Amino acid sequence: MIGTEQGTIIVANKKLKKPVEINTRLGLENRHLGPIYSITRNLQFSKVFMSVGDWSAKIWMDDLRTPLVKTRYHPSYLSDGCFSPTRVGAFFLTRKDGWLDVWDYYYRQNEIAFSHKVSDAALTCIKISYVGSGNQILGGKFAAIGDQDGTVTILELCESLYTMQKNEKDIMTDIFTR
Fold first, then answer.
1. CA separation (Å) from 31 to 25, 110, 128?
2. CATH number of the domain that residue 51 is part of
3. How many domains does the chain have?
Protein backbone atom coordinates (compact mmCIF):
# COMPACT_ATOMS: atom_id res chain seq x y z
CA MET A 1 0.00 0.00 0.00
CA ILE A 2 1.18 3.46 -0.85
CA GLY A 3 -0.07 6.73 0.63
CA THR A 4 0.28 9.67 -1.73
CA GLU A 5 0.91 13.35 -1.10
CA GLN A 6 -2.55 14.02 -2.53
CA GLY A 7 -4.20 11.94 0.25
CA THR A 8 -5.16 8.82 -1.72
CA ILE A 9 -4.13 5.21 -1.11
CA ILE A 10 -2.85 2.95 -3.87
CA VAL A 11 -2.85 -0.82 -3.42
CA ALA A 12 -0.31 -2.60 -5.63
CA ASN A 13 0.40 -6.33 -5.85
CA LYS A 14 3.51 -8.05 -7.14
CA LYS A 15 3.13 -11.70 -7.99
CA LEU A 16 5.96 -14.03 -8.89
CA LYS A 17 7.07 -13.64 -12.53
CA LYS A 18 4.33 -11.09 -13.27
CA PRO A 19 4.49 -7.29 -13.48
CA VAL A 20 3.20 -5.14 -10.66
CA GLU A 21 -0.51 -4.63 -10.93
CA ILE A 22 -2.28 -1.70 -9.33
CA ASN A 23 -5.59 -3.05 -8.13
CA THR A 24 -7.35 -0.20 -6.42
CA ARG A 25 -7.16 3.46 -5.55
CA LEU A 26 -8.83 4.06 -2.22
CA GLY A 27 -10.00 7.35 -0.88
CA LEU A 28 -10.81 9.11 -4.13
CA GLU A 29 -13.99 10.52 -2.58
CA ASN A 30 -12.96 10.22 1.08
CA ARG A 31 -9.29 11.06 0.71
CA HIS A 32 -7.16 12.85 3.26
CA LEU A 33 -6.79 16.59 2.68
CA GLY A 34 -2.99 16.37 2.66
CA PRO A 35 -0.17 13.83 2.53
CA ILE A 36 -0.63 10.44 4.15
CA TYR A 37 2.07 10.01 6.80
CA SER A 38 1.32 6.46 7.93
CA ILE A 39 -0.46 3.30 6.79
CA THR A 40 -0.54 0.35 9.18
CA ARG A 41 -2.42 -2.94 9.37
CA ASN A 42 -4.30 -4.26 12.37
CA LEU A 43 -2.32 -7.29 13.64
CA GLN A 44 -5.49 -9.17 14.61
CA PHE A 45 -7.57 -8.36 11.49
CA SER A 46 -5.26 -8.43 8.49
CA LYS A 47 -7.92 -6.95 6.15
CA VAL A 48 -8.25 -3.84 8.34
CA PHE A 49 -5.74 -0.99 8.07
CA MET A 50 -5.42 2.62 9.19
CA SER A 51 -4.25 5.67 7.27
CA VAL A 52 -3.03 8.80 9.06
CA GLY A 53 -2.83 12.17 7.36
CA ASP A 54 -3.98 15.78 7.70
CA TRP A 55 -5.98 16.15 10.95
CA SER A 56 -7.61 12.71 10.93
CA ALA A 57 -7.13 8.95 10.88
CA LYS A 58 -9.27 6.60 8.81
CA ILE A 59 -9.77 2.88 9.27
CA TRP A 60 -10.34 0.90 6.08
CA MET A 61 -11.06 -2.65 5.03
CA ASP A 62 -9.40 -4.16 1.94
CA ASP A 63 -12.73 -4.98 0.29
CA LEU A 64 -14.29 -1.51 0.68
CA ARG A 65 -13.54 1.78 -1.09
CA THR A 66 -14.79 3.97 1.75
CA PRO A 67 -13.45 4.07 5.31
CA LEU A 68 -15.14 2.10 8.09
CA VAL A 69 -14.20 4.74 10.66
CA LYS A 70 -13.12 8.38 10.38
CA THR A 71 -11.89 10.18 13.46
CA ARG A 72 -12.98 13.73 14.04
CA TYR A 73 -10.47 16.39 13.07
CA HIS A 74 -7.82 16.87 15.75
CA PRO A 75 -6.58 20.36 16.74
CA SER A 76 -3.16 19.66 15.17
CA TYR A 77 -1.78 17.68 12.22
CA LEU A 78 -1.37 13.97 12.89
CA SER A 79 2.05 12.47 12.21
CA ASP A 80 1.81 8.72 12.90
CA GLY A 81 -0.48 6.04 14.25
CA CYS A 82 -0.64 2.37 15.14
CA PHE A 83 -3.08 -0.22 16.36
CA SER A 84 -2.63 -1.82 19.74
CA PRO A 85 -1.06 -5.24 19.15
CA THR A 86 -3.08 -6.76 21.99
CA ARG A 87 -6.35 -4.80 21.93
CA VAL A 88 -8.41 -5.13 18.76
CA GLY A 89 -10.34 -1.90 19.26
CA ALA A 90 -7.58 0.44 20.45
CA PHE A 91 -5.30 2.64 18.37
CA PHE A 92 -2.80 5.40 19.06
CA LEU A 93 -2.18 8.67 17.18
CA THR A 94 0.70 11.13 17.52
CA ARG A 95 0.22 14.82 16.82
CA LYS A 96 2.57 17.58 15.71
CA ASP A 97 1.72 19.65 18.80
CA GLY A 98 3.37 17.03 21.09
CA TRP A 99 0.24 15.17 22.20
CA LEU A 100 -0.54 11.44 22.06
CA ASP A 101 -4.20 10.49 21.55
CA VAL A 102 -5.55 7.05 22.40
CA TRP A 103 -8.75 5.91 20.75
CA ASP A 104 -10.54 2.93 22.27
CA TYR A 105 -13.18 2.10 19.70
CA TYR A 106 -14.50 -0.73 21.86
CA TYR A 107 -15.22 1.73 24.69
CA ARG A 108 -16.13 4.97 22.83
CA GLN A 109 -16.71 5.24 19.11
CA ASN A 110 -16.77 9.00 18.59
CA GLU A 111 -14.26 10.56 20.95
CA ILE A 112 -10.73 10.20 22.24
CA ALA A 113 -10.43 7.92 25.27
CA PHE A 114 -7.20 9.47 26.57
CA SER A 115 -4.76 12.27 25.62
CA HIS A 116 -1.29 12.83 27.02
CA LYS A 117 1.23 15.64 26.43
CA VAL A 118 4.49 13.82 25.63
CA SER A 119 6.77 16.61 24.39
CA ASP A 120 6.96 20.30 23.51
CA ALA A 121 8.35 19.24 20.11
CA ALA A 122 6.29 17.67 17.30
CA LEU A 123 5.83 13.92 17.72
CA THR A 124 6.98 11.98 14.67
CA CYS A 125 6.49 8.25 15.33
CA ILE A 126 5.08 5.65 17.68
CA LYS A 127 5.75 1.93 18.19
CA ILE A 128 4.08 -0.38 20.70
CA SER A 129 6.06 -3.29 22.17
CA TYR A 130 4.92 -6.80 21.40
CA VAL A 131 6.21 -10.30 20.93
CA GLY A 132 4.52 -12.82 18.65
CA SER A 133 4.40 -16.29 20.17
CA GLY A 134 2.74 -18.78 17.85
CA ASN A 135 -0.83 -17.61 17.37
CA GLN A 136 -0.66 -15.29 20.37
CA ILE A 137 0.55 -11.71 20.65
CA LEU A 138 2.03 -10.81 24.02
CA GLY A 139 3.02 -7.47 25.44
CA GLY A 140 1.68 -4.11 24.35
CA LYS A 141 2.64 -2.64 27.71
CA PHE A 142 5.16 -0.05 26.47
CA ALA A 143 4.98 2.68 23.83
CA ALA A 144 8.07 4.30 22.29
CA ILE A 145 7.34 7.76 20.93
CA GLY A 146 9.84 9.80 18.94
CA ASP A 147 9.79 13.56 18.50
CA GLN A 148 11.24 16.06 16.05
CA ASP A 149 14.19 16.86 18.36
CA GLY A 150 15.36 13.22 18.36
CA THR A 151 14.10 12.34 21.81
CA VAL A 152 12.47 8.95 22.36
CA THR A 153 10.02 8.76 25.24
CA ILE A 154 9.05 5.36 26.66
CA LEU A 155 5.59 5.28 28.23
CA GLU A 156 4.24 2.44 30.32
CA LEU A 157 0.59 2.03 29.39
CA CYS A 158 -2.10 1.31 31.94
CA GLU A 159 -3.42 -2.25 32.00
CA SER A 160 -6.73 -1.37 30.36
CA LEU A 161 -4.86 -0.22 27.23
CA TYR A 162 -3.07 -3.53 26.68
CA THR A 163 -5.39 -6.15 28.19
CA MET A 164 -8.16 -7.44 25.92
CA GLN A 165 -11.59 -6.73 27.36
CA LYS A 166 -14.24 -9.43 27.70
CA ASN A 167 -15.93 -10.10 24.31
CA GLU A 168 -13.87 -7.32 22.67
CA LYS A 169 -12.68 -9.46 19.78
CA ASP A 170 -16.21 -10.70 18.97
CA ILE A 171 -17.74 -7.24 19.17
CA MET A 172 -14.99 -5.63 17.07
CA THR A 173 -15.31 -8.44 14.51
CA ASP A 174 -19.01 -7.59 14.23
CA ILE A 175 -18.23 -3.87 13.86
CA PHE A 176 -15.56 -4.45 11.18
CA THR A 177 -17.65 -6.91 9.17
CA ARG A 178 -20.96 -5.07 9.48
1. 10, 19, 27
2. 2.130.10.10
3. 1
